[in-house]
Amino acid sequence: MDPEPSKSLTVNQCIDHIAQKLGAANLHYGHGAIDEQSEALWLVSKQINLSPSEALDHLDDPITDEQQKKALAVADERILTRKPLAYILGEAWLMGVPFFCSEQSIIPRSWIAELIVNGSLESWLPADGKALDLCTGNGSLAILLALSCPDIHVSACDISMPALSVAARNVDRHGLNSQVELLEGDLWNALPEPNEDNLFDLIICNPPYVNTHSMNALPTEYHAEPVLALAGGDDGMDLIRRIIALAPDYLSERGAILIEIGNEYENFKKAFPQIPAIWMEVSAGEEQVLLIQAEDLHQ
Q: Is the pLDDT of residue 182 over 50?
């Protein structure tokens, strides 16, 4: 444990001190922060009641001894438990938007979020269109979609009622109860039988896709998350096969489905050699997220 703070630090000095502590502890990142410096910024910003981006404008402000103590206590818990910071703080940020977060659902992170916010998906979202977020988890992608396109209706489903309870809190937090509908069930079973009046213009999905070998090699931090939200079977494609098999039934004629597959590019190509997928460019490259148009699923 750290000694009692002996003098007041600035926000920046506190961030640097905590980053050094985290850096010396051999932690793993990837749940909303890419390294110890960004995680320290997030941790300290929470104690001074600012968003991480807002905190960057207050780096030279003093931080109180009490805030400093609380920040150090959180850092100690992070190091001791190896739990992702989002679970400790009860909050995560995705594309600058805050979400309630708990161990009942996976921590929000998805390359799809970039595509929603930068407008790459708007061609598939007509005014008064319908979108579906399959495997919604805590609802973050559905909420980003609703915030980015306020004139569409968004359905969001998940097999996990505990995850949906977190999603409901997030939908309420962002005032989207009239725009985002939450449904419980195993993939397509959550939805009514498809007919011409309830088809979707765009389906987005960040499903469990980690292959068995990779699951076994995941750092401790990832094992704090529900296995159900990560594991995709031997080749990572178990759920994706089920998703693609029935997607044509739920898409409008000019609709499309967008799926994140992470590092499973080779396994996807092997499993679906016949599908002419469009690979979408995100900050991680061009092999993480794919889009399939409805007409290409009917072949």
A: yes
